[in-house]
Amino acid sequence: MDILVVVDMQKDFISGALGTKEALSIVPRVAEKIAQAKKAGKTIVFTRDTHHENYLDTQEGKNLPVPHCIENTDGWQLDPALDTAGAMIFDKPSFGSEALVRYLKSLNDLRSAEFVGLCTDICVITNVLSTKCALPELPISVDSACCAGVTPESHANALSAMRMCQIKID
Fold this sequence. Notes:
The protein has 170 residues and is of the alpha/beta class. It has helices at residues 11-14, 21-39, 59-63, 98-106, 120-134, 152-164, and strands at residues 2-7, 43-49, 88-92, 112-118, 140-148, 168-169. It is globular.
């Protein structure tokens, strides 16, 4: 089985509280990537950054005092341009998803994992490297054209760091 992991393609990261023009620009490419993956018979899963009303009291909230992805708000929703039908969604309270890694480890026939999404330099890199640590022999790739970072520079730095950890960057 080959899997496509779509990381945090949520309204608050695209056009909301933490949105950027780079994030907005990748939405059509991610939508096409999902459509191609479905045609190829790949399994598709999503992660969803999930915070609560006490966000500003958390460690992350103290370091990034911008409320975002508060559960059940509009900004928490995955972008409606993305086809989520039949896909598992892993809500995560922080950068990486332990539940995603457990799920990937449970797949006996997993052949490869490809990651796309937001933000390259925070949640994408965290989930990619967590997966690499848990499944060191699994071929992992990142489609750089379907990712965006907080800034173009931090996006490039994250791609470079992942490349150094033997992640294939397309």
